[in-house]
């Protein structure tokens, strides 16, 4: 079993993780007509907003309760109420996702009761808008936990409780935070090719996919899962959760509605993709379409072509737990070795399955210290300085990626995504490969030569 090494430093050096509120906000951005609302200071919100905008290169509707010194001391219910009413009046969102920050969490406010009182007091004014609370203090967890808490809260608050009549072709997909816009879109197309109807929650593929509304400015998210679809999740015949951190939302849905779930810890790789396609075939009662089988054949060929470039390579990865597992299993499956593994938090059970001797909970400073001798660094854009200092190429994954375009349109899942990932990494290896020189091919180079000043045994 993999050893999990706790963080021992008192300060982060080049931080690896992003905060829980940011992860929750990202999940709320996958709901149509939504606005995430940070309950905290303007600075907390501004920092998260900058990262989201730089990563997605899109306008992101993120608001704040703008807590000041007085509100922090006396309590923030008035700021919360005013912010919710302002958003309702100005933008009329379908959903307001409240994400708490460390500032208000440390004070110990009763947010659930505050929100309940606001809803009762302002029931007429807030009609038609769902308000969902995710308690996400900055001082614990990371983006993965924030995403999980937000999705769980959405299901618990909005989905109709109780068992309902099931639609035989309807399935619910709960994607992990680490799936890109392209991954989610590809999942939908794959499910639909079996004649099934997917409801994806959250669905970033239509809200942060780089499209712009035709003729008007939209102050909320302009795509994503509709609130009406979330309400009717209980009519699905199956739920598919992707990533260990999505087990909680899937269990909540099953508890409230009785919808069974299947958990896929990763969809990158032949084994996970085969299991996913087999499940879709079983639900639909139809064999895999010809285009799916063709993509599988292409992946098999890519595995044969690519494994020569991976064999014996040492990989250093720093990522959130589920993404760490996704990438580590991919690389070891191709014949590489995980020489360094760093993650953000040590609470996820998936870390015990990471194919590495040990996983260090830490930051990019830890990655830099452990990565000496590696052939490839794998982390987000903040790892570029370590890459330069170590002279090791960097493969950018996760969040944030702000110094490259199109990161959200890179496919990494199922047959096609795994094939593309094989080629992308192999090309990095080939680009970094040093061409042999005549000196390096000289068999006598660096060979110990006899000391001419020392007499030979014959001369003695």
UniProtKB/TrEMBL annotation:
<comment type="pathway">
    <text>Cofactor biosynthesis; Fe-Mo cofactor biosynthesis.</text>
</comment>
<dbReference type="InterPro" id="IPR005975">
    <property type="entry name" value="Nase_Mo-Fe_CF"/>
</dbReference>
<dbReference type="Pfam" id="PF00148">
    <property type="entry name" value="Oxidored_nitro"/>
</dbReference>
<comment type="function">
    <text>This protein may play a role in the biosynthesis of the prosthetic group of nitrogenase (FeMo cofactor).</text>
</comment>
<protein>
    <recommendedName>
        <fullName>Nitrogenase iron-molybdenum cofactor biosynthesis protein NifN</fullName>
    </recommendedName>
</protein>
<feature type="domain" description="Nitrogenase/oxidoreductase component 1">
    <location>
        <begin position="19"/>
        <end position="429"/>
    </location>
</feature>
<feature type="region of interest" description="Disordered">
    <location>
        <begin position="434"/>
        <end position="460"/>
    </location>
</feature>
<feature type="compositionally biased region" description="Basic and acidic residues">
    <location>
        <begin position="444"/>
        <end position="460"/>
    </location>
</feature>
<dbReference type="InterPro" id="IPR050152">
    <property type="entry name" value="ChlB/BchB/BchZ"/>
</dbReference>
<comment type="similarity">
    <text>Belongs to the NifD/NifK/NifE/NifN family.</text>
</comment>
<dbReference type="InterPro" id="IPR000318">
    <property type="entry name" value="Nase_comp1_CS"/>
</dbReference>
<keyword id="KW-0535">Nitrogen fixation</keyword>
<dbReference type="InterPro" id="IPR000510">
    <property type="entry name" value="Nase/OxRdtase_comp1"/>
</dbReference>
């Amino acid at each position: 079993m993999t050893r999990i090494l706790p963080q021992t430093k008192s300060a982060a050096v080049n931080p690896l993780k992003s905060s829980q509120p940011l992860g929750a906000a990202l999940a709320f951005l996958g709901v149509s007509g939504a606005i995430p609302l940070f309950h905290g200071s303007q600075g907390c919100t501004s920092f998260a907003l900058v990262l989201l905008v730089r990563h997605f290169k899109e306008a992101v509707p993120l608001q704040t309760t703008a807590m000041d010194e007085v509100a922090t001391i006396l309590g923030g219910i008035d700021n919360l109420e005013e912010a919710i009413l302002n958003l309702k009046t100005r933008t009329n969102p379908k959903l307001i996702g409240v994400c708490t920050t460390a500032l208000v969490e440390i004070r110990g406010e009763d947010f659930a009761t505050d929100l309940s009182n606001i809803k009762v007091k302002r029931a007429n004014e807030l009609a038609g808008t769902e308000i969902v609370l995710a308690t996400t203090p900055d001082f614990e967890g990371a983006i993965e936990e924030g995403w999980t808490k937000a999705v769980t809260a959405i299901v618990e608050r909005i989905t109709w409780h109780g068992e309902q009549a099931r639609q035989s072709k309807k399935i619910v997909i709960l994607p992990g935070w680490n799936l890109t816009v392209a991954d989610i879109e590809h999942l939908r197309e794959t499910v639909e090719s079996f004649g099934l109807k997917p409801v994806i929650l959250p669905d970033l593929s239509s809200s942060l996919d780089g499209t712009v509304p035709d003729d008007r400015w939209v102050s909320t998210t302009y795509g994503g899962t509709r609130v009406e679809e979330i309400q009717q999740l209980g009519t699905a015949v199956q739920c598919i959760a992707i990533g260990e951190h999505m087990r909680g939302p899937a269990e909540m849905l099953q508890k409230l509605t009785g919808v069974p779930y299947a958990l896929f810890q990763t969809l990158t790789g032949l084994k996970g993709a085969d299991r996913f396609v087999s499940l879709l075939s079983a639900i639909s009662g139809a064999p895999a379409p010809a285009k799916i089988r063709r993509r599988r054949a292409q992946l098999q060929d890519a595995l044969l072509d690519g494994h020569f470039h991976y064999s014996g390579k040492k990989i250093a990865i720093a990522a959130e737990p589920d993404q760490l597992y996704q990438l580590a299993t991919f690389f070891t499956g191709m014949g590489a070795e995980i020489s360094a593994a760093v993650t953000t938090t040590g609470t996820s059970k998936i870390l015990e399955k990471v194919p590495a001797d040990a996983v260090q909970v830490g930051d990019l400073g830890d990655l830099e210290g452990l990565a000496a001798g590696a052939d490839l660094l794998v982390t987000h854009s903040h790892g570029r300085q370590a890459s330069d200092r170590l002279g090791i190429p960097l493969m950018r994954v996760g969040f944030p990626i702000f110094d490259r375009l199109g990161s959200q349109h890179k496919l990494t899942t199922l047959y096609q995504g795994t094939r593309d990932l094989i080629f992308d990494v192999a090309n990095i290896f080939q680009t970094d490969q040093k061409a042999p020189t005549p000196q390096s091919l000289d068999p006598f180079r660096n060979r110990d030569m006899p000391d001419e000043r020392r007499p030979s045994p014959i001369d003695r």
